Amino acid sequence: MDSDGKPTSALVEDINGSSPTTSLAEKSHTHPLPPPHLHAPPSASFAARLEETPAQLLTELPAYEIERQLLRKLDWYLVPWLSLLYLLSFLDRTSIGNAKLYNLEKDLGITDHQYLIALTIFFISYAVFEAPSNVFLKRLRPSIWLSFTMLMWGIMMTVQGLVHDYGGLLTMRWFLGLFEAGLFPGVNYYLSCWYKRSEFGIRAAVFFSAATVSGAFGGLLAAAISNMEGVGGKPAWAWIFIIEGLATVLAGAASFWIIQDFPDTAKFLTEEERAFVIRRLQEDDQFSAAGESFKFSYVWAAVKDWKTWVGMLCYTGVDGPLYAFSLFTPSIINQLGYTATPANLLSVPVYVWACILTCGVGWLADRRQTRAYFNLIFLTVGAAGYIILIASRNPALSYFAVYLAASGIYPLIPNTVAFVSNNTEGSYKRSVVLAMVIGFGNLNGAVSSNIYRAQDTPWYRLGHIIVLVYICIGFISTVVMMIGLKRENAARERGEKDEVIEGERPVGEKAVGDAKNGVYETVEDAKRDKGDQWSGYRYVI
Question: Which domains, ranges and CATH numbers included, belong to the chain?
Fold first, then answer.
């Protein structure tokens, strides 16, 4: 009970618009949770705080108000800066599409095929190093790892503006992908360590919406920087890379002091607030909220889970189209009859629309506590956009279809990440699953960055057809995930997945549950060992 006599579970329901867990999970919460192993050894007082319920931690205000104020504090300290970092990340990787319009190929003496290879090589290093990067983030702390990688990719971006030939461009694109690899999967995992499942979607959406802002801002910035043609003896495209790279270096250096680590060590929170954050996550069935020691079995659990592999296909269905869209939107608009600067400027309202829709879908999906249905709706909208692009020869209609295409891509990146994250429990398992899902999706950027060929201008029908195939993959895999999760939840409701809990069985009574699902001394042992495979855990559809 809180100070107003309101149970904590009811407070959580008031905040999120739905009950926090299922009946079996609620039953388990009547047992006090012991403090798990922390990222750093807890003080005696902090460990004692973890034994208290959230309503006992801060009693000066009603628990609802405490939770609301704490969320606001977390949001202000975490989300804006991380969003800025992703804005710079996406700006740096996609600005080559803007630079192309200002004679990049001509000045470096490269062909259209070589340009496509330069796009492709980024995604190879980017995808390969995402999973290892998440492990480094977990072991070295976010404040160190994220800041280091950002500083390094800022340097690579700056040097990219100084290259004089094709080999130099390829080298910089490779290292740019290597150092950018850790940010997106790392931050999504990092945010999932701070927020409940019903709160994660909108934060992931705001974070990712920086990509849409970068699309709009990138076009405006490229148009402005084009006026620097010839300054210092350098072409406009070089200044695009140099200015954006230097901005990234400054942000990376500042991140050493700005980025926090995990809730149990957050300097901007009081001891009571740190314990409050951890306890509320544990009540949301995030049993590893206070940290867990590394075991290889957690990695293996991620690899053998069917949800990981279906999630990879779900994410591929939206991430493959993302890079095709973001890299080639200026060129597509350019081929509709607009010159370089107007083409960049006409891409701005498309990204503004995508930003608004991304945040709106994130908020609504959290409120409704469903992810899959939003994927299906907006994948259908995106498919309609690409069908129009394939069939139309009208520039105005094709430009309208670009908005539909953006609607089927941008909101679904964070929604799919939240879909996967919401259904994965265990700190290390979630970090590995997110890295695998996002890494595989980004590997498809190597494919989608090669589908808009010069010989297919001005309508790029082959590229649009390939993107449409990606969207179909996303739709089908989302349906498969929905069916699988619904069946699993139903089996747990029927008790088919119940474990045997020896320590809570009265002497002489027959054990409840099935030994094939595991035998544990307490419910808490089962939860910490099995994560989202625990019988009381319910998947979010």
Answer: 65-286+313-487 (1.20.1250.20), 496-533 (no CATH)
